[in-house]
Amino acid sequence: MCPSLLPPLLLLLLLCARAAPVRGDAAPVPTYRDTDPVTGAPVECDRCPPGSYLRSTCTATSKSVCAQCPPGSFTELWNYIGKCLRCGVCGHDQVMKTPCAAHTDCQCEFDMGARHSESRSGHEVLTRGTADEDTVCQVCPNGTYSDTVSALHECTLHRGCDAPGMQMVLKGSSWHDSVCTSCKGLSCKDAGDYLREILPAFFVHQKIHPRRLRRILNRLPSESGKNHGASGLGLSDHQARINAWVASATAAQIRQLPAALTRSGADGAGHRLLSKLQRIEWSLSELNDSRNEVDNIVQ
């Protein structure tokens, strides 16, 4: 049949098929520029395919010589490096999904029986962990807080102290809630009682070593001389004992806690807690002064 008599669509398909490269045609080998080690003249050398490395470079009269990557190494791209890359190793909480081969590194995924990383207090989970990725965390946005360590938890809005009769005595931070009061005149609690509200979150946030926590317990007012367990007890055990002390201690004893921390070697924690106590005392003083001014105006 004459081509001019073919249907237009069939003719177009034949022309495209004739123009297309034959399946299986090899793509051009990538190259790199080098210098002939004998003549010093520039030469263009073939790169080595994935799974191999460059044993010797080309010259004006010879091609590049490539060699297979030995076990435990790989190359994923066309290259001209003199040594294959060392295979990676999966982390302690990962399992191997695909072993390392000459042309690709090993592929790891998280062991679903192992726990993903947890967001520490003052942070929230931005992306939950999956089989391929660990947990991604971020600092709590302004106006929110987190007082827990969790792989799932999100930050919580600070308590509002704007209800009628309520006043703020301590502004919330990324790791503790705001502390409010509705006291009037002499009905206000001691500053130690308001500090008590943030202490459980404080000890979670500080991440103090169990050995130091035990030392702190031994220096707390009303706890000195008591046996607080063997050195093998964990962090949660000592934090539970401190929380029990916090719940039963008097306001005066709570006020001595910053000094007890400093004597135990936790100077930074002691200073930070003292700063919180002083802010509460200042707020209570301001509230008392403002109420005295109102009383004087009324009189």
TrEMBL record:
Keywords: Apoptosis, Disulfide bond, Glycoprotein, Repeat, Secreted, Signal. InterPro entries: Death_3_fish, TNFR/NGFR_Cys_rich_reg, TNFRSF_decoy_receptor. The keyword Metal-binding does not apply. Disulfide bonds join 69-84, 87-100, 90-108. Its main location: secreted. TNFR-Cys repeats lie at residues 68-108. Residues 68-108 form the TNFR-Cys domain. It comes from the Eukaryota. Residues 1-24 form the signal peptide. One of its GO terms (biological process) is apoptotic process. It is found in: Secreted. GO terms for cellular component: extracellular region. This is TNFR-Cys domain-containing protein. It comes from Gasterosteus aculeatus aculeatus.
